[in-house]
Amino acid sequence: LLLKVVLGDKPYIVDGGFGRAYQMWQPMELISGTDQPQTPGVFRFMEESGVWYLEKVKRKQWVPNQSVSTSHNMEKEDCHRIYLFTLQPRDIEEFRACNAHLQTAPDSLFVVKSICSLQTTDGVRALVGWKLTEIKYNYKDNTDLVEISILADEEMEKTLKEKFNITLDKKFVPINTSRLSLF
Questions:
Q1: Which residues pair with 79 in a beta bridge?
Q2: Which GO terms describe its molecular function (predicted)?
């Protein structure tokens, strides 16, 4: 699901809800093959036979506590295709079944993992299960700083409050029953 607007005579994607470390922060002109630098990195759209791809050029990453990040997804390619879409208009009803599946299916990542993420002024932080990942974009010399820690149960409440401004009425019990890493 994304939102396209036309300003003047130029089309822009203004909200893609792409999430993770691939989230664009500013509207992007919908033009194929043009690099569009933003704080999280350099993005571009590529169009092939009516199918559009959102790509992000990878920056180097510095992970000071590399041993903690055994499942951290460190892609080796220079450019990562994030999403594909067409410009065919859709009705919100067309998304209801997929949204219900993502919220309830036993194999959905949103069921088998507890996920909390937040964009910060200079990066993104995410708590997936017990794994806290904080990314500071362009920390130095075109390199992102990636800090990863595995939290103990007793650190959860404090971390949710201090890092995400979340206070829960009940004890939070993290879930992570999938081997797939999101951050």
A1: 57
A2: arylamine N-acetyltransferase activity
Within-domain flag for 176: no
pLDDT digits (tens, 9 = 90+) for 18-41: 666 678 889 999 999 999 999 999
CB hemisphere CA count around 44 (13 angstroms): 11
The predicted-structure confidence for 74-124, as pLDDT tens digits, reads as follows 555 688 898 899 999 999 999 999 999 999 999 998 899 999 999 999 999
In order of 5, 84, 97, the CA distances from 133 in angstroms are 33, 26, 31
CB 45 within 8 A of CB 32: yes
For 14, the token pair is 């203004």
User: Could you count the other beta carbons within 10 Å of the beta carbon of residue 156?
Assistant: 19
Listing DSSP states for the chain in one string gives --EEEEETTEEEEEE----GGG---S-EE--BT--EEETTEEEEEEEETTEEEEEEEPPEEE-TTGGGGTT-----SSEEEEEEE------GGGGHHHHHHHHH-TT-HHHHB-EEEEE-SSEEEEEETTEEEEEEEEEETTEEEEEEEEPPGGGHHHHHHHHH----SS-----B-------
Residues spanned by the domain of 57:
3-164
Q: Is residue 180 part of a domain?
A: no
Q: Measured in whole angstroms, how far is the alpha carbon of residue 117 from the centre of its chain?
A: 8
